[in-house]
Fold:
Amino acid sequence: MNSFELREFCKQETRRYMDMSNSKLGLNLPYPKVEFGIKNKRVKGLAFLGKNLIKYSDDLVRFTKEVVSNTCAHEVAHLVCYAKHGNNVKHHGEEWSSCLWTLGHKADKYFRGNPAPPTIVRTALGKVTIMPGVRTIEFD
Ligand SMILES: [Zn+2]
Structure:
């Protein structure tokens, strides 16, 4: 994939996973906005909870389509989990895993062999949870 194809693929996969969530869970969630341009190369995707926004890294162009698709499912599951449960559940807890499972992905695929605890940092935008190894961060 080139950069253009990557961006189109991410948008398409994000919509496909949102359609799948809505259909399987009886929801009617709108498609999220999709943006690119994450600077941190360790971060593949970001779910902006409450903003219905997902940002992806252009660096995903170095990865296989499967990895890119997994990243899209991971982030969509965060938005769906937030819509269903709000902020009352863990970022990568059972509820989120269940949303990811609905999309045909297993959570343990992302976390196996990743015993390091998450790092919480404060930024101008709020609290950010960085999951080492997972290379995904979420905004509270
Ligand atoms: Zn995550």
Summary: The pocket of zinc ion is lined by residues 74, 78, 91-92, 136, 138 (CB under 6 Å). Residues 11 and 118 are 28 Å apart (CA to CA). The chain has four helices and six strands. The chain has one domain: 3-139.
